[in-house]
């Protein structure tokens, strides 16, 4: 990868760590599938240069670029890929966790944030954080899906993991998600509600940046349990013990530059054709797919103009 894109190996590892490049481990080696290489290459492709044979006065129309940051999810990946093709857009995903994705959106450094953040006080997802951050901006929040979160364990659940207190047992090795991940928010909220000291959990300080990376510890026998989504367990052929259902939303921040592209993306996500394209939905509830859960008055004016 470093040679192909003329970047340093350190940069490649950083891309993997941030979730912008999907990889998996075999032993002490990182492996990247060819399809993922092509996806990354297409997402980072520079706009095409003007054809010198075109008549004078003609202009090239490169595909508009939309930046998506936040939590990694298989449905988000599918949406970005399908929408980019259907709408002739360049969608640049950066999977850096829910909290950081929302902050990047707040700073105006991306157009869409993918989030699932549980507010420990209200026990409400996403909106408490949005209300605090976005006061004057033009914001619209769409429901993508509800997801099952729980314990990812080896087949047969050999350590008999049933609840959070089991994570503190001697001989149980845990693998965590990074600070700022929506899954980490949910885990810490549950531990606090049960009065469990995280320092008692062996592996609480071991952090991974996406569900597949955390689940791969179980596949390789390096850990006994991870906290993550059911679809990741299904992808890896592992068992899953459900704990909670969470709301996963997409937050759109409108500007004069991205208004047309974001409006098209919202219409595409709400379309019957996109819903029909969704398969392998184990662990997902898409009954509210495309539902507007919040929008500012500025957005109502923007989207109806």
What features would you highlight for this structure?
single chain, alpha/beta, D-Maltodextrin-Binding Protein, domain 2, two-stranded antiparallel ribbon, 35% helix
The mean pLDDT is: 89
CATH class of the largest domain: Alpha Beta
Low-confidence stretches: none
Q: What is the succession of H and E elements?
A: HHEEHEHEHEHEEHEHEHEHHEEH
Radius of gyration: 20 Å
Total count of strands:
12
Helix content: 25-40%
**What distance separates the N and C termini?**
45 Å
The number of domains is: 2
Largest sheet: 10 strands, mixed
* Form type: globular
Portion in strands: 15-25%
Task: Explain what you see.
The protein has helices spanning 2-5, 9-17, 34-43, 74-87, 98-106, 127-133, 182-193, 211-219, 230-236, 259-269, 272-277, 297-304; strands at residues 24-26, 29-31, 65-70, 90-95, 112-115, 138-153, 174-177, 207-208, 225-229, 239-254, 284-285, 292-295. The protein has 305 residues and is α/β, with parallel strands linked by helices. The chain has two domains: 2-43 and 63-147 and 248-304, D-Maltodextrin-Binding Protein, domain 2 (3-Layer(aba) Sandwich); 149-245, Periplasmic binding protein-like II (D-Maltodextrin-Binding Protein, domain 2), CATH 3.40.190.10. Strands 3, 4, 5, 6, 7, 8, 9, 10, 11 and 12 form a ten-stranded mixed β-sheet that branches. A two-stranded antiparallel sheet has the order 1-2. Helix 7 (182-193) links the parallel strand 7 (174-177) and strand 8 (207-208). Helix 4 crosses helix 10 (259-269). It is globular. The model has no long low-confidence stretch (mean pLDDT 89).
């Amino acid at each position: 990868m470093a040679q192909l894109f003329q970047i340093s190996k350190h940069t490649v590892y950083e891309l993997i760590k941030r979730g912008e490049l999907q990889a998996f481990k075999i032993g002490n080696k990182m492996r990247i599938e060819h399809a993922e290489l092509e996806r990354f290459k297409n997402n980072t492709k520079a706009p095409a240069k003007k054809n010198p044979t075109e008549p004078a006065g003609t202009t090239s129309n490169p595909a508009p670029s939309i930046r998506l940051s936040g939590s990694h999810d298989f449905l988000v990946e599918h949406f970005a890929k399908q929408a980019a093709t259907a709408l002739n857009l360049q969608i640049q995903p950066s999977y850096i966790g829910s909290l950081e994705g929302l902050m990047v959106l707040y700073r105006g450094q991306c157009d869409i944030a993918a989030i699932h953040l549980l507010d420990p006080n209200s026990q409400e997802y996403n909106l408490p954080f949005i209300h605090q951050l976005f006061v004057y901006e033009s914001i619209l929040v769409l429901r993508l899906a509800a997801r099952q979160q729980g314990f990812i364990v080896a087949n047969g659940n050999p350590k008999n993991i049933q609840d959070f207190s089991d994570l503190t047992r001697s001989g149980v090795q845990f693998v965590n998600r990074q600070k700022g991940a929506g899954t980490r928010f949910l885990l810490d909220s549950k531990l606090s509600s049960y009065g469990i000291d995280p320092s008692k959990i062996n592996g609480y300080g071991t952090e991974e940046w996406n569900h597949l990376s955390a689940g791969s510890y179980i596949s390789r026998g390096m850990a006994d349990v991870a906290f993550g989504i059911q679809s990741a367990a299904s992808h890896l052929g592992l068992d899953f013990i459900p704990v909670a259902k969470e709301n996963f939303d997409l937050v759109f921040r409108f500007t004069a530059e991205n208004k047309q592209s974001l409006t098209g993306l919202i219409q595409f996500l709400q379309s019957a054709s996109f819903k029909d394209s969704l398969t392998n939905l184990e662990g997902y509830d898409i009954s509210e797919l495309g539902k507007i859960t919040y929008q500012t008055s500025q957005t109502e004016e923007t989207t109806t103009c």
